[in-house]
Amino acid sequence: MQRASESPRLDAQILLAWTLQRDKEWLIAHGECDLTDSQAEIFAKLCEKRATGMPVAYITGRVGFYGREFVVSDAVLIPRPETEHLTEDAIAHLRSRATGSDVLDVGTGSGAIACTIAAEFPGAIVDGTDTSEAALEVARGNARLLGVRERCTFYRADIVDERNGKMFDVVVANLPYVPTNQIPRRPDSVGFEPLVALDGGPDGLGPYRKLLALAPRLLRPGALLLMEAAPPTIEALAILARSACAGALVEVRPDYAGLERYVSVRDGGGRSG
Hints:
Blueprint: H1 8-20, H2 24-29, H3 37-51, H4 56-60, E1 62-65, E2 68-71, H5 84-96, E3 102-106, H6 112-120, E4 125-130, H7 133-145, E5 152-156, E6 168-173, H8 206-218, E7 219-228, H9 231-244, E8 249-254, E9 260-266
Parallel strand pairs: 3-4, 3-6, 4-5, 6-7
Antiparallel strand pairs: 1-2, 7-9, 8-9
């Protein structure tokens, strides 16, 4: 497992806890616990999967995000801590407004961002879109588990259903942003994630160009648009955002590690809605 993981000890603890259906705290308090033959066999098989490079989240079908546990499958990108700052900004913006709580989560995947916003801000009405029906089923399941399904609607669309003409107070997007020729391959753990959730085209910005072309029609006056990317493409994304959203305040924001992670576009509110 060591060659497939940067944190083999932690991975082993997670897989052992999953085998025993206990949490890590229990493991620490019961380090002397012996495995049954059946448990040892299950644990060994899980470790073998991890040794191939398969992410722990796909092995257990669970991942933590913003203090909650989400179901994942290999149909969705694994939610990452780097995305929590973006989610936090979206929630803070909703809380700062006297009115308005319509949210669009583009490329929702597991629904982690959409469901977290709905759970943290009870007034939020969230639309989540994705091109993958399998991903949408995962998102709907997470909305049920978190008790927010009445306020989260997930539907298949490239960006959004333009026919209803709906506008939003917050638009969040974690779209594919890896340039095609830079997508990691197995046994890198990222190579196990769905290609459709990674491939951003030749320069990594193809999906965001589609979103930004629609942005002026999606954003209500005073709305916030948040788009995750990565240091290699973030400045180019910010330039595109400034061009598409004239008059808006465009900023590049960091993640927990201090790396440039997402672009914030705050509408000045001067347009008529």
